Amino acid sequence: MTDILVAGETLVDLLPGAGETLRDVDGFTHRPGGAPANVAVGLSRLGAPPAFWTRLGDDPFGDFLRETLDEEGVPDALSRRVGGNTTLAVVSPPGVDGRRFRFYGSRDVTFGFDPDAVPTDALASASWVHVGGVALTHPRGRTAMREVAAVADERGCTVSFDVNYRPDLVPEGDRDAVVEAIRDILGDTDVAFASDEDVAATGISSREGEDLARDLLDFGPHTAVVTLGSEGAVAASMDAAPWGETTARHGGFRVEAVDATGAGDAFTSGLIRRLAARTDGTTPSTAAETDLADALAFANATAALSVRDRGGMTALPDREAVEAFLAERA
């Protein structure tokens, strides 16, 4: 399997107990989270543990997160412990309109990546680098993630980027700088991940589905993947893609959903796992690993299994579970 490096935040999700709104829930359960951290753990469970550049507070929640990453087989060589409190992402109860996440704690600790500490040596040995978009909401995080993507691109890595735009984390007056950073990183990206909602909030495009995927290709990626929630996902690619010029769509799988937190991250880890096996020059173990449509099916199966339990990271499936699920649904 190819060497993968993931860059981005690790934080704590607070999942609400019973209640119609946050003001009247009966308590919270803490779970490990953060989109890039979910992707890193998802890849590890799928048999491809990545290097992971992240930041952890020196508080008890930081201890909890480091222990979790250790247990999940994600090495600690690139993680940095810094003074301060871990960011908490408070998840809204199911069915509540409006903001799904509310963030509390030190933005500097979790998102303030040091541009001078970009792991250039690790990038030199990686063949696939995945960058999370939430850190772009912090000034230092923007600079650092731009550098990660640029260095990875210069060194010939396949670069994937999850737009994951969070307006609630953008300080007043910083929106233009965040959107500019998204455009810059897309220019160094090979495979872009986004949702209609993410991109509409940036103003980059107001289109949806396949049309949005085509718009994203104009910024530089050879492949753009748009997740469609319960409707699955669609992808578009250009001639430069290792899988050629194509459009692929998969409608997802019907399951009894308990908690959709982190489903998009599960999807991302599943798709990277399949596509990375295609781009590292090795012979794919199955024909499915050479085909973008079948890679979407694998990613959607990973996401479907992840929503059947509570917690974004803790509900991520392993490769055997995904393959068994696909065999059943075939």
Automatic annotation (TrEMBL):
<dbReference type="GO" id="GO:0008865">
    <property type="term" value="F:fructokinase activity"/>
</dbReference>
<dbReference type="InterPro" id="IPR029056">
    <property type="entry name" value="Ribokinase-like"/>
</dbReference>
<keyword id="KW-0547">Nucleotide-binding</keyword>
<dbReference type="Pfam" id="PF00294">
    <property type="entry name" value="PfkB"/>
</dbReference>
<feature type="domain" description="Carbohydrate kinase PfkB">
    <location>
        <begin position="1"/>
        <end position="318"/>
    </location>
</feature>
<dbReference type="GO" id="GO:0006000">
    <property type="term" value="P:fructose metabolic process"/>
</dbReference>
<dbReference type="InterPro" id="IPR050306">
    <property type="entry name" value="PfkB_Carbo_kinase"/>
</dbReference>
<keyword id="KW-0808">Transferase</keyword>
<dbReference type="InterPro" id="IPR002173">
    <property type="entry name" value="Carboh/pur_kinase_PfkB_CS"/>
</dbReference>
<keyword id="KW-0418">Kinase</keyword>
<dbReference type="InterPro" id="IPR002139">
    <property type="entry name" value="Ribo/fructo_kinase"/>
</dbReference>
<dbReference type="InterPro" id="IPR011611">
    <property type="entry name" value="PfkB_dom"/>
</dbReference>
<keyword id="KW-0067">ATP-binding</keyword>
<dbReference type="GO" id="GO:0005524">
    <property type="term" value="F:ATP binding"/>
</dbReference>
<comment type="similarity">
    <text>Belongs to the carbohydrate kinase PfkB family.</text>
</comment>
<protein>
    <submittedName>
        <fullName>PfkB domain protein</fullName>
    </submittedName>
</protein>
